[in-house]
Structures are given as structure tokens and as C-alpha cells.
Amino acid sequence: MIEVLTGFGVVVVVIAVGYLLGRTDALGPGARRALANLVYLVATPALLFDILLDTDPREIFSANFLVIAFSALIAGFAGFLLLRLRGSNAPDSLIGMLASSYANAGNLGVPLAVYILDDAAAVIPVILFQVAFYAPVTLTTLDILHDSKQSNLLRNVVLAFRNPMLLAALAGLLIGFLRIPVPVILSQPVSLLAGASVPLALMVFGMSLVGSKVSLTGDVALVVLLKNVAHPVIAGLLAFHAFGLSGPALFTLVVLGALPTAQNVLTYALRFRTNETLARDTGVVSTLVSFPVLVVVTILLGPG
Fold first, then answer.
1. Which ranges does the record mark as transmembrane (predicted)?
2. What is the model's pLDDT at position 149?
3. What are the backbone dihedrals phi and psi of residue 261, each rounded to the nearest 5 degrees, phi first?
4. Are 246 and 54 in contact (CB under 8 A)?
5. Which of 100, 190, 216, 293 has the smallest number of CB atoms closer than 10 Å to its CB?
């Protein structure tokens, strides 16, 4: 328990460093975007690939994957229905659905998995499900609702498969499954780049908190409650009652369910000009709320 809580402290300190860098503008204008792109395009894909070189692919596609998928779909569908009952139209409710269940598994999930779960590979099923299935299907539905003449599932799947984190994960899984030896000239540079992922991602998050202003509307509060509380509870109940998981496996799935709303949701909202305020505010609020929630989860379910 002490080790896990110490890990939280490490995360908070590195985030604080990023916040100070952003607050003082020490790295100059445009630094946050440049560092964020470095994390997204290079460092985190390298980390995922590096991890998967030593991970059995069967560990990825296990009961954990099913719990992750079903818990996200249940929480998301609940968000969709509740927002519809509150008077939101279908496209706005779809964005709310994503905000209720689409986790920040890359930029924040990876470092949190390292320090809380001691296993960065734990987030890979989340990334695979969200990027390869959840996002393409939802975006296609939004296309149809917007009566887009170019709407089709194939285009959105192709777009999803341009995600560097998904490509790195799939490449690592393929190499692991086929047991292809990776030469040192490739594995060592990848390992070096992977080392930059966690600290950079946390500092970028800290920089993003500078000047963040949110409006805690009823819809935002509802979606945050679903993402930060209902989603991990659903994941825990499914893991325990449907799949008989307990101990570290149960703890891992509840932590993954408690991850905050991903920034991708705001990207999708901006793309369709739909419920942008909800997506932005939920991303910020759910991230701040996720830390005390994760501390509680750790106290209740964490190791020793």
C-alpha cells in the first residue's frame, strides 16, 4: 500500500513540474503542443511496442479485455440514455456516451499504470478496444446522424488505424505472437525512446492545467459521475461476478475503469461540432476527480 501511495506522490510531483513550466512559460510558446505530439507520435508508441516484446499476447486477449469492453459499453450506453432523457439530441448524447466511458489510456493511463499497477501493459486492451472498435463505430454513427454523404465504417476504421499507439500495439502483438527476434539495433533505440513517455506525458498534463476553466453543469456532473464512479463499479462487478476475478486482476480492472475521459472525445466533438463544451469540461473535471477516486480504489482493493 505504501509503495502504491508513494507512486501517486511521484505522479503528482511530476505533474506539478509540468504545471510550473506551463505557468512560467519557461519552454516558450507552443511547447505544450510540441511535447504532446512527441508523446503521442513517438514516446508512447515506443513504450507500448517495447512492453509487448516481452508480453504474451494471450495475456492481452483474456477476460480482462471482455470486462474492459463490456464495462465501457454499459457505462457509455447509460450516459447516452440519461442525456437523452435530459433533453439532449442524439449526436450530443453520443458525445456524452464517449465522455462517460472512453478512457484516457494513453497519455495518462500509461503513467498511472506504471506507478499504480506496476504494469504498463495493462492499458493495452483499453487502447485496442477504444481505437480499433469503439471510436470507429461511434464516429460512423455520428456521420450518419449528420447525414454525411461520405459516411462509412471503412473510412473511420482506416482513420483509426493511423493512430500510432494502435499501430505500435499491433506490431508488438504480431512480433510477440510469431516470436520474431528483434535486433538490438531496433530494440535499444525503442527502449530509449520509451523511457521518455511517462515523464513527458505527466508534464504535458500538468502544463494543460494552466488556465483551464470549466463550467460544472448538470450534464458535466452526470457524465463525470458515470466515468469516475459508475464505470469502475461496473468493471468491478463484471470482473468479480461474471468472470470470477479477484485480487490484483480485480484491482487492475477497477483502476482502468476509473481512468478519466480521454482528450480524444474533445477531438471527435470538434470534428462534428457537437457538444464541444461538454467534451472539454468533462475531460478536465474527470481528470481532477480521478485522482481521489484512484486513491480510494487503491485503499480498498490495492495490494497489502
1. 6-22, 34-53, 65-83, 95-117, 123-145, 166-186, 192-210, 222-243, 249-270, 282-302
2. 52
3. -65, 135
4. no
5. 216
Prediction pTM value? 0.80
Place of cell 454513427: 141
Contact 251, 303 (CB under 8 A): yes
* Contacts made by residues 253-256, CB under 8 angstroms, sequence distance 24+: 253/64, 253/67, 253/68, 253/71, 254/297, 254/301, 255/112, 255/113, 255/116, 255/117, 255/122, 255/294, 255/297, 255/298, 256/68, 256/103, 256/105, 256/109, 256/113, 256/122, 256/123, 256/126
pLDDT tens across 90-143, in order? 999 999 999 999 998 877 788 888 878 888 888 889 988 988 788 888 888 887
Nearest-angstrom CA–CA distance, 263 and 98: 11
Report domain extents, the chain: 2-294
Question: What is d(CA 91, CA 270) in angstroms, rounded to the nearest whole number?
Answer: 12
Q: Give the fold, CATH level 3, of 2-294.
A: Na+/H+ antiporter like fold (1.20.1530)
- Spell out the residues 6+ positions from residue 15 whose beta carbon is closer than 8 angstroms to its own: 202, 203, 205, 206, 209
Q: Tens of pLDDT along 37-66?
A: 888 888 888 888 888 787 777 777 789 999
**H-type helices in the chain, by residue range?**
2-24, 31-38, 44-52, 57-60, 63-85, 90-101, 109-112, 124-129, 135-145, 153-160, 164-178, 184-194, 197-208, 218-225, 231-237, 247-257, 264-272, 276-301
Residue 294's closest CA among 110, 112, 96? 112
Residue 238 contacts residue 248 (beta carbons within 8 Å): no
Q: Report percent pLDDT > 70 for the chain.
A: 92
Round to whole Å and give the CA distance between 274 and 142. 9
Nearest to 22 by CA among 6, 11, 37, 33: 33
Residue 220 CA to residue 275 CA, distance in Å, equals 11
Distance CA 239, CA 165 (A): 26
